[in-house]
Amino acid sequence: MKVIYNSFLPIPGFTAMNLCGLILARRESKPLQKATLRHEAIHTTQMRETLYLGFYLLYLLEWIIKLFVYGREAYRNISFEREAYRYAPYENYLEERRAYAWLKLVIHN
């Protein structure tokens, strides 16, 4: 994954964001922590599984639905984010991960 450090994206309050496998990170976060890189690598895997465009469409749809359920906590309850946050601490997660692992997190904890 290529990481581009800058002062514009993501917005303040976020460390990094993933655009089709390209990581944009806040300049003040340089260098990114390994767990953050793994979090973004999990997103890249999710994007591949959903053919990239599907990731963004599903992400937005789930965020809108969960906005009604969780309010300000909607972002942290999106299945893609739940998987990435939950498993970012584990170095070997992507080698052991089952395909479409995020699907079980759409509804279940």
Overall description:
The chain is α+β, with helices and mostly antiparallel strands and 109 residues long. It has a domain at 32-105. Helices cover 43% and strands 13% of the residues. It has helices at residues 34-49, 53-70, 79-87, 93-96; strands at residues 2-6, 16-19, 22-26. Strands 1-3-2 form a 3-stranded mixed beta sheet, with helices on one face. Helix 1 (34-49) packs across helix 2 and helix 1 packs antiparallel against helix 3. The protein is globular. The N and C termini lie far apart (29 Å). The mean pLDDT is 96.
Q: What does this entry show, briefly?
A:
With 109 residues, the chain is of the alpha+beta class. It is 43% helix and 13% strand. The protein has helices at 34-49, 53-70, 79-87, 93-96, and strands at residues 2-6, 16-19, 22-26.
Annotation keywords:
single chain, 109 residues, alpha+beta, 3-stranded mixed β-sheet, 3 strands, globular
Uncertain runs: none
Q: Termini separation (Å)? A: 29 Å
Cα gyration radius (Å): 14 Å
- The neighbouring-strand order within the major sheet is 1-3-2
Secondary structure topology:
Elements: E1 2-6, E2 16-19, E3 22-26, H1 34-49, H2 53-70, H3 79-87, H4 93-96
Parallel strand pairs: 1-3
Antiparallel strand pairs: 2-3
